Amino acid sequence: MCFDSRNWNEESYRDSILKARELQTRTVFRAIWAPSSNPNPDTIVVASSDGLISSYSVSSCISKHASGFISSRNHNMLTIKPDSVLRGHDGSVYDVKFYGDGEDTLLLSCGDDGRIRGWKWKDITLSDAPNYSIGNHVQPVIDLVNPQHKGPWGALSPIPENNALAIDVKQGSIYAAAGDSCAYCWDVETGKAKMIFSGHRDYLHCIVLRSSANQIITGSEDGTARIWDCRSARCVHVIAPEKDLKYEKFSSCISCIALDASENWLVCGCGSSLSLWNLPASECISKIPTSAPALDVIFYDNQILEVGAAPVLSRFDMKGNVLSQIHCAPQLSFSISLHHSGVCSSYPSSFCLWNLILFSFSFSSCKFIRISVAICS
């Protein structure tokens, strides 16, 4: 068959090459469980570097495996379509959170474009749009944009990105860790910025709410975690896990932080170690070496779960002893999300589920995910 060069479209060809490369390098930055009245989780929402927010059904994954729907490329792999896909942001989506409960539940997201967007979760799950359709078939009900800073001669800075979110449903607030070294408090009802937390010397990686003390805690590239009073926006304490007392410098950034259920214990990921702090005493209790830089950490039943730049999910006790390590196929993981029925972790181009006989990795495109099944203790 001869090729008719008269129908050649150079621009279309270039776009197809760029899209193919984007899919090959797609990164999943966050994977979380969706709220459900069912005690067993069924839906996972993932945020990725192509600006998309996708949801997947665990039961569909399991049923596909039970029916023997095996990929011809690899006998251990399945091809699963997402239940829905949203065009969330222009640029990477770094975090997703759920706000509220019941029919008023909102799916919130933030990303590289400096926006915080929120959709009614009910509208997404009940949408008439075809499954795995990509677009704006559900419009956001919240659309917040970080402020720009004025420079010389009235010039405006670029809009700073949002790297992480924390929510306070009781106060109707959304907290965002931004790339301009500030944290912002937004009012959900008015869509206005209520407060700006300024004091870090570099951009923020992470943020958590300490509701019992009406505080937030932020972790920054400047090597410190700061505790802020939400009533005055003042910094009340600075935590420096790896401060060099001789040179007054910090050797590593704070890449991740987490609070336990009592909100008395804080764990910080800093370089290739975790530091455990007793907040009432303002004291570092233990330092826990990790096999690689930590990228996310959570507490679970007086234990610490950590993932990062190594192909393992590590479990430590409060003294820093290694309880177990679950080895994974991908070499890097960005986030971990906990449900009483299992643990979910996200990787470049993938997310994983443990204790649900489901272990997944590698997107083949923005519409499909390949899944392998394993039983992990």
UniProtKB/TrEMBL annotation:
<dbReference type="InterPro" id="IPR036322">
    <property type="entry name" value="WD40_repeat_dom_sf"/>
</dbReference>
<dbReference type="InterPro" id="IPR001680">
    <property type="entry name" value="WD40_rpt"/>
</dbReference>
<protein>
    <recommendedName>
        <fullName>THO complex subunit 6</fullName>
    </recommendedName>
</protein>
<keyword id="KW-0853">WD repeat</keyword>
<feature type="repeat" description="WD">
    <location>
        <begin position="197"/>
        <end position="238"/>
    </location>
</feature>
<dbReference type="GO" id="GO:0006406">
    <property type="term" value="P:mRNA export from nucleus"/>
</dbReference>
<dbReference type="InterPro" id="IPR015943">
    <property type="entry name" value="WD40/YVTN_repeat-like_dom_sf"/>
</dbReference>
<comment type="similarity">
    <text>Belongs to the WD repeat THOC6 family.</text>
</comment>
<feature type="repeat" description="WD">
    <location>
        <begin position="86"/>
        <end position="120"/>
    </location>
</feature>
<dbReference type="GO" id="GO:0000347">
    <property type="term" value="C:THO complex"/>
</dbReference>
<dbReference type="GO" id="GO:0000346">
    <property type="term" value="C:transcription export complex"/>
</dbReference>
<dbReference type="InterPro" id="IPR042626">
    <property type="entry name" value="THOC6"/>
</dbReference>
<dbReference type="Pfam" id="PF00400">
    <property type="entry name" value="WD40"/>
</dbReference>
